[in-house]
Amino acid sequence: MAIDQGNLLYYFRNNLILIPTALLFYLFVCITAGFAFGRLRFPFRLSLFLLVLFLMIFPQMLLSMQLFQLCSKLHLTNSYLGLILVWTAYFAPFGTYIMATFFSSLPYEIIESARIDGAGTWKILTRIALPIAYPMLGIIIIIAFQSMWNELPFSLLLLQKMEMRTVTLGIAMIQGQYGIPATVQSAVIMIASIIPMMVFVFFQKYIATGSFAGAIKG
Amino acid sequence: MRTKKMVSGLLLLSLIAVLVCGFAVANAASQVTLTVWDFKYNDPGMHPVMVKIDELFMKKYPNVKISHVGQPNDQYYQLLRAAAQANDGPDVAMFHGARGDTYELDQFQVKLDKYIKPWRKEIPEDSWKVASTNRNFKNGIKLIPMTSQGFGFYYNKAYFKKAGLDPNKPPKDWNSFLAACEKLKAAGIVPITGGTRDYTANFMFRTFAANIFGKNVSGLQTGKLGFEKNAAFKKAAQMMVELKQKGYFDPNGASTPYFMDAINNYAAGKGAIFCGLLSDVANWKQFSDALGKNNVGYFPSINFTEAKSKDMQSFQPVGIGFGVMTWSKNKDLAEKYAEFYARGEGAQTFVAGTGALSPNTTLDAEALGYPVLKDISSYLKKNISEDYQTWFVGSFEDDLIAVTQRLLITGEINPDKFVEQVEKVAAQHR
């Protein structure tokens, strides 16, 4: 009944299209920007990094109106691309910060020996730094996944077509003006929590290992 | 010769292709999509009816496709504000009648006066007035009213009979109301379903206010009238406390939300009296369908000596309505859509399907065969008192509910302190 009333299967399908795609965008930005801030030297690096940190303080509701206007002007409302870009922009600063902190803690010798062997920046990132960073990637994936799964204000504004809506939006939608019985609502929320829980269980070992990353230098 | 035939054939094929493409393009160009936003579309009771009305409209206007978007109720006006800032949003949007939020978005709503001119008489001027910004016709009519709203007491005739009461004689005055509750309680029937949480007490106060303030409710908003020094309002508070003390409310009322649990409880026969609505939900249709058409009685308020009027019906001339947004590229069609819900086949379908009370006087709701509607109509014809809540912004209701359920009903403050508090709340919202 809960699945039927909430059109949940529909919304699950949308989430499973939208979130993995958004995560790819998000990871690309976090990894590349994180590496740049963590390992490279370029003008205004610290200022830009502080700006990225500064972006983390804005609450969603403060930005939602302006982002909606921007997306509207760029014809990105009612498109998954619009929401993916907004999510990436909003969630990436935290991931970038985590990755930059991790990359900056990598032993200097590892990077230097790779350079001596003729590896360029891209190769160092993909072949040397990234494999070591898997625990950190696990952490930022799990945090971003949960954030995107539970995100409401941006998706509410940007996805106005019923057939495009996400699970969280769907839960908000089934509560009409006068709500629905609490039993149905609880069932819908329980069902909607299954996938985030599974993701958490799958990635939790990375959190455990990632939290100790860099604690021991041998 | 052969080449000639081939060329002719190719030309003919090309011509057909061009014609087909041209027809398709022309057809696509004449196809209009109207986007509609509302906060009702997700309600289980409303959804199938609105889908049906949309289909009827699309049948009437084959070149129109309706994209009906149900928005979450809690974020609805915020979404509309965002749309207004971006100057991009729905063609048609639903609004509450006479609410600050509605009037606040006034500049983004199309004036509908010229559109409604041919059929304006179908809806009373009182409703059109509320549909105009700040109830001033000079600002233009911005809504086409779909429903009227009000509050009153429904009662279960079978339970009345079981308790030894006359099912055709509603307990309209205070003493007979108390006596009825006592008899019901003695018969093992919950006298008043719902009770001490959220809207039950709030709606009951609004029905009492109809008798207390009669037709002069606007003074409450301007400050000419007050709650604190009004002996009848204090008596209303004492009545609420007495009902609670005598155990006439549902014993589980404190933990039962009005929407939809208390309503469903009453529809399931768990109680004899319920303070319900005239439109939307908890209305004449829902209860008659659940409890039997001839089993539901109605009275609008409780009469008591301190109140200056009797049998007054608390009423909102416009419950909800559709407005047309200024950024719409199809304003004429958008207005036709809004109109469709308010008159003719669309309105009739809406009323029959949802139990809404339409302000449109040409609709024959009584033909639907619900006896309780006759009772309601008789009060509406002569005893209307506008619901005082509509003169205040939405947060006034929330604050009043807080004062009522957390302080008065729990015994935290006495009726004297309560009327003082209500006056303070009203002063903050004036």
Automatic annotation (TrEMBL), chain B:
This is Raffinose/stachyose/melibiose transport system substrate-binding protein. The keyword Signal applies. It comes from Hydrogenispora ethanolica. Belongs to the bacterial solute-binding protein 1 family. GO terms for biological process: transmembrane transport. Keywords: Signal, Transport. Residues 1-28 form the signal peptide. Pfam families: SBP_bac_1 (PF01547). Transmembrane segments: none annotated. InterPro entries: Bact_solute-bd_prot1, SBP, SBP_1_CS. The keyword Signal applies.
